[in-house]
């Protein structure tokens, strides 16, 4: 199968597959996804996620002794520093373990897990695109119906015939002054 085809990931060797696996693992991490979607890292939150993918890949390449604990520490630190998120649900450890497992498999030439993640990601993306297109189609149809209804003038009332809602202003009561010259305070009803 051609690795550059639309059905496969754009990866040709173990390093490329590992980079793809890291990217997919981080893009599937709910804590990071929420932080990016909510712009907790600022308007360029998605760029920070991309940077993190590259930093993890670089760390694994330059320091082969890197283990899951090292990756977990980096993930927690970046979430805290860049997104102001404290990750305490052990999900960073799970993502780190997933990345280390993909690294081990990629080193053995086994890309099946990464390939499967890629295919799942593509299906989700297609479903999101289809849902967005369906939403736009329904939204356009609703706008068309609103336009049609306003053109018919069915049930419209001429506003010139509307009753006046303005009431005549009340006369202000004169303040009562007692024998000592003080103004009496009355409760409002």
TrEMBL record:
Signal peptide: none annotated. Keywords: rRNA processing. The keyword Metal-binding does not apply. It comes from the Eukaryota. Residues 128-189 are annotated as: Disordered. The keyword Oxidoreductase does not apply. GO terms for biological process: rRNA processing. Pfam families: WGG. Residues 141-161 have a biased composition (Acidic residues). Belongs to the TSR2 family. This is Pre-rRNA processing protein.
